[in-house]
Amino acid sequence: MNQGLKLHKSISILIHILAWILIGAVLFLLGPLSWNTTLPVEFWYRQLTLITLLVGLFYANKDVFVPKLLFEGKIWPFLLLILGLCFSLMFAMEYFENLLHLPELMHKAFHPEDDQPFKPKRDYINVFMLLVLFLAAGISTSVAAVQKWQTDEALRRQLDQQRISSELSYLKAQINPHFFFNTLNNIYSLTSIDVESARIALHKLSRMMRYVLYETEKDQTLLSKEIGFIKDFIELMKLRISEKVKIELEIDEKMEDRVVAPMLLLPFVENCFKHGISSRQPGTISIKIHTQENTLTLETSNKIVPKNMGSPESSQRGIGLANTKRRLSLLYHKKHELAIDDQNPENEYRVTLKINLA
């Protein structure tokens, strides 16, 4: 990484050097060389001094004035400083040219046959010089603004990535620990009734734990592994629910394997069992997962079972849903559609999630 940063810095310095060489050649070298006359050496001193002032103004403005004043909201002090500095540099160059007697020497170079005594112009403002200085200040301000935008954008992406990682870690911790403990107790009870079923259930639980511990460390996983995790979760949940609850599961068997963010579908499936099961009344949980071309679709529905307002689960759906929405917006911005319907005559909680995996 350090070598990459050094290389990037070296390339940036090289680009700056080449850019100034090009600007100097175009503005201060090609034009004078095309003039059909012999220019005095003082003229080239003037050109070298001017390009030096421009370079100094450019980097002083980009690295000091813009960050310390403009980006801090001090707009008027910044504008007054730039105006004052440009006019000061213009007058300084005028003084330097007069010190070298450059106007007189240039007049002789272009009018060698003129025997009249040289009369210097009394213009107080060199418009061309002022425009060149303003141009250098304007370009350096634009470069500083673009660099700040790039830095802020890189920082935002880094923060978003850190937020995604932290939210994924939270999501891993959010999986109900009681699920694992209760599943282990159910498996323990099965060992005295149906050893083979207990062995299969234990294998599913260990496979789920492996997925949570290892696959979620990656940014992406295969869709087949995510679907396998959902299937194992549903099979183990069947050990805990009564026969009154009917589970309708439709998952495409021949699903094209694509990459997807891990643990993205679980919160919606888990909510069906958390909030759609009553110990007294029968109910139905419907879970459908299928793909069409590049679109992955998840559809879930369950009866809305009133929860005790004092219980922790009464607010868990809102918190979990908010976290999942945030994660979807970070990972699949403008590439997903989420529709939630909890206001229907059937008193069902319905979720439709579509993700473009292209």
Automatic annotation (TrEMBL):
PANTHER family in the record: SENSOR HISTIDINE KINASE YPDA
The protein's name in its UniProt record: Histidine kinase
Signal peptide range in chain numbering: none
Keyword Membrane: yes
Occurrences of domain Signal transduction histidine kinase internal region (ranges): 167-244
InterPro entries in alphabetical order: Bact_2-comp_sensor_kinase, HATPase_C_sf, Sig_transdc_His_kin_internal
Gene Ontology MF terms in the entry: kinase activity
UniProt entry tagged with the keyword Transferase: yes
Keywords associated with the record: Kinase, Membrane, Transferase, Transmembrane, Transmembrane helix
Segments passing through the bilayer: 12-31, 43-61, 73-96, 124-146
